Write a sequence for this structure.
């Protein structure tokens, strides 16, 4: 393995770890409070309660 292959592999590891950490932080700091707000409001449609957390995690998936 030459240094270019090693650098490419390390870039993949760094990118993967960054995506996982980003997903965890988004879920803890953004999605949970929004879900709590939706649960406190009984008139929020069920479809919106299911869709909003997925849309908030979209940046992690992309």
């Amino acid at each position: 393995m030459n240094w270019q292959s090693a650098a490419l592999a390390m870039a993949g590891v760094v990118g993967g770890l960054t995506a996982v950490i980003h997903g965890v932080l988004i879920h803890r700091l953004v999605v949970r409070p929004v879900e709590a707000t939706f649960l406190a409001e009984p008139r929020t449609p069920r479809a919106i309660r299911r869709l909003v957390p997925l849309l908030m995690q979209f940046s992690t998936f992309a």
Remarks:
- Helices lie at 3-40, 46-56, 58-61.
- The chain has three helices and no strands.
